[in-house]
Amino acid sequence: MSHASLATIVTQGVNFPLAPGALFGEMALFTRKSQRTASAVCRTDVRLLVITYEQFEQLYFQNPEFGLYLVRLVVRRFEMNHSEEIEKLPPLPVAMAFE
């Protein structure tokens, strides 16, 4: 996982600008074989901080707020990457959505 001061992620021809301090590369922490789901292209000079999986795991368990933030970030990125497929899904009945 990386932390950039300024960058733009280019994935499948779509640009997602990253604000200073934004995280990226988090999806690879949860995939088999740590495979990336996108590539990052820096349009300007950046300062990039990288943490190992072991450092990530320690941070995750020591700081539950970070863990929840990361889960939400992964879900948002998944939704961005699969928005067309998600829109085609039928809505869940209200009772099932809250079980």
Chain-wise SSE layout:
Layout: E1 2-4, E2 7-11, E3 14-18, E4 22-24, E5 39-41, E6 48-50, H1 53-62, H2 64-81, H3 83-88, H4 94-97
Antiparallel strand pairs: 1-4, 1-6, 2-3, 2-5
Give a description of the structure.
- This protein is an alpha+beta fold.
- The chain is built from 4 helices and 6 strands, in the order E-E-E-E-E-E-H-H-H-H.
- Helix content is 38%, strand content 22%.
- The chain has a single domain (2-89), classed as Sandwich (Jelly Rolls), CATH 2.60.120.
- The chain has a 3-stranded antiparallel sheet, with no helix packed on it.
- The radius of gyration is 16 Å and the shape is globular.
- A hairpin with a 2-residue loop joins strand 2 (7-11) and strand 3 (14-18).
List keywords for this structure.
Jelly Rolls; 38% helix; 99 residues; alpha+beta; 22% strand; three-stranded antiparallel beta sheet
